[in-house]
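[Q] Does anyone have a clean C-alpha cell version of this?
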Amino acid sequence: MERLDRRQVVALLLVGLVAGAAGAGLVVAVSSFLSNSVHVQNGVTLHAPTGPAVTIEETAEVNLTDPFPASDTVEIRSSKGNITATGSQWANVTVDQINGTWTNTSSIDVIGKTLTLNPGDKSAATVTGDITSLDWKASMAADDGTTDFVYSSALGSGSVTLRGLPGNTKLGAVDPSSHTLLDVATTDGSGSATFSGLSSGSHSVEFVTTKGAPTISGASPTGNANSNPTQLSVNVSDPDFPAGDQVDLTFKLDGVTVGTDTLTANGTATTSISSPTGGTHSWTVTATDGYSQTRTASYSLNIPSTLYIYNESAPNTLINSPTNVTVQFFANENIIKRTTTTGSVNLTGLPVNQPIYVKADADGYYSRTVYIPSLYQQQEVYLLNENVTVTTDRFTLADTPGFPQGSSTLYIKRAITKNGSTTWKTIVSDQFGVAGLTTTLEKNVRYRVVIENIDTNKVAVLGAYTATIDETVELHPEPPGVGVTDDETGVGYSVVQTDSALTIQYSDPTNTTDSLDIWIHERGNTSQKLVANQTYFGLGEVNEIEPLSGADANTSWVVVMTVARGNETFVIRQNAGNRPGTLVPADLDPMWLQFIAVALLVLFAGIFSIHTRGVGAFAVAAIGAVLWWVGWLGVMASGAAVAMALGIGIMVMLTDSPGPGLG
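[A] Here you go.
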C-alpha cells in the first residue's frame, strides 16, 4: 500500500510539472516522462508531503523516479548535481547552484523550522531561524584568508551548521570586511559545528583560530594610595582583536563585582568605584574573550588607616610608651576619641577622603589642633615637646577680598625631613576665629604660613614666618594676578622675582586641579632648591610668596609646576630670572615687561642697515639672550630658542661681507 501511495504522489507530481512547464512556456518531451525525468528551465518546486518545499532554478534534467524517499525529505537528482533537503513542513528554499566549488541557495524560509541541505559533492549544511540565504564552499579551512561561507539574516537570530571542518577545533566565524567576530564554535570529532546568533545582514565569513588569550597589565591603583581612588583600570591586549575579537572584563573589589567593561581593541578598561574605607583591599579583574579564554589578575590596595603622632623637633621619632596620647577626631558632626601608647592610632570607621579636625594631647607636649582636608594628604600629627624654647603667636586675618574670615583656614607648616626627603608638613591648622588663631611655635624656627578659602579652593602662600617673640601677626593674603594663560590647558600662571621675594601665581578657572606640585631650583643646578617642594591638593588658585635675601636674592631661579587634573598631567616650567627693583617697578605686570622687551628688540634691530646685517643679526640675538636671562622675555622664549638664535647670528655675521658701518 505504501508503494502505491508513493507512485500516486509521483504521478501527481508529473502532472504538476507538465502543467507548470506549460504555464512557464517550457517544452517537456514525452521521453522525459517515460524515463521519469523532466527538463527544468525557469524553476520548478518540489514539496514533500510533511517536509520542505525546494525550488530548482538551474536549467537541468531532473530525475523524478523517487523524489520523496521520506515524507519530510526532497531528493533531487539532476544533470547539474544531486541535493537532498530534509526539514520541517513548510520550510522553503531555492537552490540556485548545486555542484561545483560552491552550493548557492536563496529565498530560505525556516523561521521556527529546520532545513538540512546535502549536496552530492560536498558536506551538508543545516539552517534554522531567520537565515534567508546560504552559500558554502566544498573545501573549508581555517586561517587561509579565503571566504568559507556566505549568509544573509533578517533579524540576527539564525544559525548555520556546517560539516566537513577540522575535528575538535575551536573556530571563529569572522566577517573580515567589518572585523566582526560573529560567533565561536567548537567542532565535534566528525568536524561538525553550529554557529548561532549570527548578525543580521549579508556577511562573507572566514574561519579563524585563536592566536592566544588576552593579557592584562598596567593595573591602577595598586599599593599605597596617595589620593582617593575613583576607578579601577587595567590595560588589555589581545592578539585576536584584528580578527574581530571582543574582550569582556569583570572587576571585583573585596570579592564583590563593582563593574564591567568591554574592549574591541587594545586599550584601557575601567570601572568607577565608591571611595574605599581605610585599610587593605584586594581587587581582581577577569578578562574573557570571544573564544572563552580567560585571564584573571589580582591586586592589593592600601587605603590610609593609621594616624601617626611624631615629635615635631625629632620628626622621625614616634611619641610612644610611656607617654599616653589622647586623640580626638571631629568629622561629620561626630566626635571620636582614641588613645595610644604606640605612636599610632587606628582610623577604622573614619572618613578617609573627607576633612577632619584632629586634636592631640599628651603629657609633656603642647596640645595641637590640625585640620586635615584628607588623610591622603597627611597621616601625621606633630606635637611640640615642652622642653624646647617656644613663642606664643596670634595670627589674625585682614579684611581681604576672596578670603572671608568665616571660610578661611590657616595652615602653619614646617619643613620635615624623612628618609633624605624634605617636605612641608602641617603643624597647626584651624579656621580663623573672631580673635584669630593662637598657637605655640618653636623659637627661631622657620615656618610657612598658608591661607586657604575652603569654599573656593583659593590658596595664598604668604611665605616664611620665623617665631622669635610673642606677637600678634595680621595676615594679608592676595588673590593671584595671572600673567600668562595657556591656551591648551586653560590655566593661568606667572612667576615674578624681585630683590626681596619670588612670587608664584597659579589659577585654574575650572577649579578642577587635583594637585599642584611646585619645585623651585637654581637655573642650571637642579639640586639646589630654594625651599622644599610644596604640593597643593584640590584647588583653583594659588599665590605663593617666597622671601629672598642674601645670595638667594642674587640667584636666578626656575619654577617647575607639575599639574594633575583629571586624567591629564602637564608641566609648566618658568624662568624667574633676576629683576632688580632699581631697573623696573616691582609691581609691573609680567605681560607689560614682555611687551617692553620685544619693543626694545624691534627698536634695536631698526638701527642696522642692509650693509650691517651680519653684525645686526648677532647683536639682536645677543640682546635677546640678555633680556631672556634677566627674565624679561618670560615664557616668550626658551633657552634652546635663544641658543639657536645666537648660533644663526654668528653664522650670518661670519658669512656676510663687512659693510661700511651704521647707516
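[Q] Thanks! Anything notable?
[A] The chain has five helices and 49 strands.
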